[in-house]
Amino acid sequence: MDKTLIIGIAGGSGSGKSTITEMIRSKFEGDVTVIRHDDYYKAQHEKTIEERAKQNYDAPEAFDTDLMAEHIHLLRQGFSIDCPVYDYTIHDRSDQVRRIEPARVMIIDGILILAEPKLRALMDIKIYVDTDADLRILRRIRRDVRDRGRSLESVIEQYVSTVKPMHEMYVEPSKRYADIIIPEGGHNMVAMEMIMNRVRSHLN
Question: What is the pTM of this model?
């Protein structure tokens, strides 16, 4: 298999990482595979749902980053992997897995991926999506209430208690490792065209 181009896309929760990821994937359908840090939240089967709900999900120790790095290595070598599937409604890893096939371009998506040296070392291009905090919290509220079955109160409480402090401690400082910082996410058409051209040149 040809060398895999690995693109890391980081940024705060609700910054627009997934929008950029989907724009690249839809443009180069079939040549792009996506692996998300969120899928690698650690299993917590032994905890009650109430205990799980109180966990800090925005700190590095919440993730099984070693397993994710191992899976990225396997994909880059041309092997398929069984990615864990995380169930946000129960705050735990489900018993399902998702088969991910290798491709010539791999996107790694996650809030903390640039804060993790072992993931950074695997990336050819490191992108940080820089979006205003007000916009990020509004997007997060809409997503968590609509798609993840959360109450408005629980989303606000989680934002104040862990999301905001962890963003300031880990996520925001990690942008110094980025090769490209994109204000306004997928709405920044100049930045998107640069990224698309880089992917296109790799595929050609």
Answer: 0.88
